[in-house]
Amino acid sequence: MNHLAQEKENEIVFVCNSDAEYVKNITELLDKKIEIIPLKLFHIDFKKRKDELIFFRLILNLISYLKFIVLKYYFVILNRNKISKAIDLREYDTVHINNGGYPGSFAAIGFVLFCYSLKFNKLFFVVNNLAVSRKHPLRMFDRPLDFLVKNRVTSFVTASNFAGERLKSVLQTPKVRTIPNAVVLDSKSLGHNHVNNNLVVGMIGILEKRKGHALAISAMKKVVAIIPNAVLLIEGEGELRDSLQQLIEDLGLHEHVRLMGREENIWSFYARLDILIFTSVDNEDMPNVISESQGLGIPVVSHKIAGTIEQVIHDNTGYLVDIGDEEKLVNYIQLLNDEKRRRDFGKNARKNYLLNFSPEVSINNYIKLYNY
């Protein structure tokens, strides 16, 4: 957007969540010519109850489910009305909506409905995760919303071909393009900052079941039997911290696996790594941590999940393993213990980032899309 704002004929309006910290951060990032409109919009998440007896839990979950279904439509309409009051009904050339997965936030869907009132040439809807099937219980009544969204959108954009094919199938539409997400690096973080001769393996992400930390910790038991100086540093916080710490103690890995908590400066964490491993099993598309690692010249060993197969070039920038294949995970970490191989893979990873995941490449791809 900053690139487009610098051209005199372009006028850009940026609508965002009214969270004070987010608005402050985005204001610092965006060009001063861009008008920012913060809005407090409505959303609700469905959360299963786990703390009551089974009968009461079923009743409470049913109530929560019905409440979610009703409030979803209500909040989408409320969001549409709030947006229509805040945004000038002038003619726009292009509308760009950045969403999570699909259907994602009620704000994004509300914005599409609002666009039925706008005069504009093109509407692009970016989907940054995998689309949820209408067979899912929370999506059973979404057919009308899906119809309205896909009929108004000029083109959907996904970060990976995998996510694109999923979205095509869910919405029954061919109007999907793929533009890989870019990541902006801290250039000062290029190069390693080791304090010893350990092989440092890293993980980055919230400590929850879908991230596969338990598998990685279990694999490290076998890794250290082969590479005694190997250590695994796990960045992040979450509900599984205590159970993961207990697993570390049970496996006798307290000297080899460390829960680092949430790092204030993630780039200094990256600088300590020789290898990044990514063991997520669900709810992923094209993880930024993989692109960031490759951009910093760090080889990656990743599960084959969604867009990771388009990020990591197997046996070139890193390795891809089937989900849950602990033996291959151990084997590939062992192969990357070879310093020359690790250095060569790191150089290849950096090239892969520059060719496919750098901001310059993404900006050019979006300008081409807007001009299509």
Summarize the structure.
By secondary structure, the protein is α/β, with parallel strands linked by helices. The chain contains 14 helices and twelve strands.
Task: Describe it.
The chain has helices at residues 2-5, 20-29, 54-86, 106-114, 143-152, 161-171, 213-226, 241-250, 266-270, 288-295, 308-311, 326-335, 339-356, 359-370, and strands at 13-17, 35-39, 91-99, 119-127, 155-158, 176-178, 199-204, 230-235, 257-261, 275-278, 300-303, 318-321. By secondary structure, the chain is of the alpha/beta class. The chain has two domains: 41-178, Rossmann fold; 187-356, Glycogen Phosphorylase B (Rossmann fold), CATH 3.40.50. The strands form three sheets. It has a six-stranded parallel sheet with strand order 9-8-7-10-11-12, sandwiched between helices. β1 (13-17), α2 (20-29) and β2 form a beta-alpha-beta unit. α3 (54-86) packs parallel to α4 and α7 (213-226) crosses α12 (326-335). It is globular.
Query: Roughly what fraction of the amino acids lie in strands?
Result: 15-25%
CATH 4th-level superfamily of the largest domain: Glycogen Phosphorylase B
Radius of gyration: 23 Å
Annotated CATH topology of the largest domain: Rossmann fold
How many individual helices?
Answer: 14
Largest sheet: 6 strands, parallel
CATH class of the largest domain: Alpha Beta
Distance between the termini: 17 Å
Count of spatially separate domains: 2
Overall body shape: globular
Q: Please trace the helix and strand order, writing H or E for each element.
A: HEHEHEHEHEHEEHEHEHEHEHEHHH
Strand order of the largest sheet: 9-8-7-10-11-12
What portion of residues is helical? Answer: 40-55%
| Strand element count | 12
Mean pLDDT: 91
Q: How does the helix and strand content classify structurally?
A: alpha/beta
